[in-house]
Each structure stands twice: as C-alpha cells, then as structure tokens.
Amino acid sequence: MKKLLITSLCLFGLAACDRNSDNFQPAAEIVPAPAPVMQEYQIEITNLTLAQPLSPIALITHDDRYRAFSIGDVASTGLEVLAEGGSNVDFLAEVDLEAGVFSTMSAAGPTFPGNTEVLNLSIEGDDVAGMMLSIVSMLINTNDAITAVQSLSIENLQPGEMMSVMSISYDSGTEANTEALGTIPGPVDGGEGFNVLRDDLEDQIRGHSGVVTVDDGMPNSILGEMHRWDNPVARITITRTL
Amino acid sequence: MKKVLPLALAALASSSIYAADLSISITNLTRGTHFTPLLIAAHPAEMKLFTVGEAASTAVQEMAEGGAIGSLVTELSAANADLVENPAAGLLAPGITTMTTLTTADENTHLSVVAMVLPTNDAFLGLNGIAIPTEPGTYMYNVNAYDSGTEANDELRGSGAAGMPGFPFPGPVETNAGMNGSGVNATVEGFIHIHRNVLGDTDVTGGASDIDSTIHRWLNPVARVIVTVN
What we know:
heterodimer, A: alpha+beta, Immunoglobulin-like, nine-stranded antiparallel beta sheet, 15% helix, 27% strand, disordered N terminus, B: alpha+beta, ten-stranded antiparallel beta sheet, 4 helices, 10 strands, 29% strand
C-alpha cells in the first residue's frame, strides 16, 4: 500500500517534470505532501466447521468504549438481523454510530467450511494505543447462531508479528432453535432469515448448545449430523504487515 | 487470547509468593443449564481439587452429584485456603454473571472454581488450580465441564445425594426438565473426564431421558471466569 502510494507520487512527479521542463522550471519546486504513516494488518478467518458456512464477516476496529455484545445481553436489532439471516448491513450501520468505533468492514461473501477469508486493514497514523478488533458472523445453517471475537487488543502487535485466536459459537437468543424447514437461511434450507418475532427460550445472548439434528432424535429438524459443530468455530490470525 | 502474554509472565512468576486482591466474575455461558452454588478457592500450588483420569474424591463427588460444597469447604479450610462460597446466593442461571472479590494469603497462589451443572447426573464445571497472575490486569479463563465419573448418566430425575441415581431438580430445573423417562443405558465411568455432553431427547413426558436435547446440551466452554488482579 505504502509502496503503491510512493510509486504513484513518483509517476506524478515525472509527469510534472516533463510538462514543466518546457518552461524551464526547476523540478525542486514540486514538493509532494509527505506520505501518511500507515499501519497494515492482514486478518485471516478460517472456517473450522464441516458444514456451516459463515456469513460475510463483519470486522470492527474500536477502543474499549465499544463492545459488540456481552453474555446475557438482549441482542440489538442489527445483531438479530445478522444472526437470523446473515446480512451484516444493519448491524454495521448500528456499529458506525457507536462511540469508540474507528472503522467497520465486511467480507464480500460467505466463508465456506475449510476456507479462509482474508481481510486487509489499513489504519492511518502511528497511534494504535487501545486499538481492538471485533468480528461477528452467522453460522448460516442454523436458526440464529453466531461466532464472534470480542474486543481483541492489537495495540502491542509490532510490524512482522502475528497473533492467533479461536472463536466459539453463541446463540443470539432471538429465534427458537426449531431447526425446522423454512426457518434456516443457509443452503441446507433456503428458508427465512430475519423475522422480527423473538421466540427463543429467553431473549438473551448465550453460549450456543449446538444443533440436535434429525440424526440425533429431533424428528422435525432439517439438519443432519454433518451440520453439528464443536467449539472452536473459527481461527482468526492477525498479521501486522506494516 | 490477549492474555497469552500475561499468562506466560504469570507462569514465570508463579514460584514467587504474593498476596493478591482479586475481583472475580463468573459467567454461565450455557444456553439452558444452571450451576449449583459456586465454590471459589485460592489455595497452595501443591493442592488440587481433582485430577483428570483419576477417581473423584468423596468431596468432589458430593459437589458433582448434588451441588453440595460442604465437604470441599471443610477440606480447603483445613488447608488454610481463601474461599468464596456461593457468590450467586443460589443457582447461577444461564446467561447470568456473578461477581465477587477475594483477598488471598501469600501462600495461596492458585485458584480453583467448581460447581455442578444441572440437569446432569454428575457434571461439574472446573477451573482447576490455575496460577493466579501476579501482574495487575484482567485475565480471562474459559472453563470446561467434566464428568466426575461417580454416577451412571441415566439422565433421570432422582437424587442429589452422593451415590444415589438421578439428578436433583430444584425450581428452575424442574420447570424445563422432562419426566417419566425410561433411562439412558449407562454405567459408572470410574474416573474424571471431559464431559461428553448429555444426550437428552425431545419427549418431555417419556422417552429415554428426562433431559431436553434442545435446551440442556452445551458446548465447552460452559463458563467464563474473569480475574482482575488489583
């Protein structure tokens, strides 16, 4: 990124020199603005499940004034939309209004089992004191399961260093885990995503208990044994490249 | 997670002796199980409440089968452990966090937390003697569920007394547990292991199990303990 920026400045400089050479103006007068100090991070998210595609990853940079959610919270409407249907648009729109949030980003599409999504994050400036990352995504062959990384501090990560964490699954608490035909948006069903009704055990974010499936005694489940998972759900590797 | 570095530092410093002023929060991460009264203990490094692969002590059996922490309290008190008993004043419901504080004596450098998971025959959550960090800061621990190996997992309503079959069913557990199950075919395992989860079924008035597979299953970790060293 930085290299690209410098290259384009040089090209501009040369072009300017060429044009100005006819007017005998000294090239030294052309002083490009100093390139901004950048910090670059590469974030890799690997889907560790067998048959639970992850909805487009939502990535948030923030400080300790923001937290995506806590266990026991009532999910925001944006988080409910994400957890039930996989779209992070409403969620990130909410997040953008929160104090302590620096930037938000979404992957272009879902991350399928065994695949790794790569997101590149550029932060302008050299001050990352208090910088944290949060990541949220839906397990789309479920009623309302999500995986999340919460408030991971990256302030001590030096250029060239990497860190790796695992994420577990949570139940948003906004939709009953019926596993029934027509209620699951993922490819196994193509059913309904977001529905405003909140009909889970309790309207509370909790750790997920997994899916039961038709193969393990839930006759009306459209899910099979391959749709089960265990924690962790995803591996997240953050490499600071600049 | 971000605690990797402090934990490593704590490990290096664990041979040192420091009194500590701790704030401790414990969250029930499960979707539908309750925790019986929690026991938090700071104790010497050489003490261990349980060892995976070995038979449970009678005190651990009483905690795991019925939530009774009295014998563990007696044993730990005799060893001059620093204790917090029952910080949630009863059952800790799913999604709920309880907070407490603990000041530790110099020699009590290690921390354990236990409680039974309900409804189960003999599952318990166990933070098993982690070295208390000496560097001030906030440290997160994910806590798994173990099977004490002392009772067959028949998954039926029954007794919380040690050695008696079945699980106790205090108020909120009574509400969503099934009944009249025929019993899961199971035998006593004989040693402590990571719990392989309950089976349950979807028949609340019969079936094999009185546990509900759509409510009472869990994925580890079942609890999150956050220790702030002040």
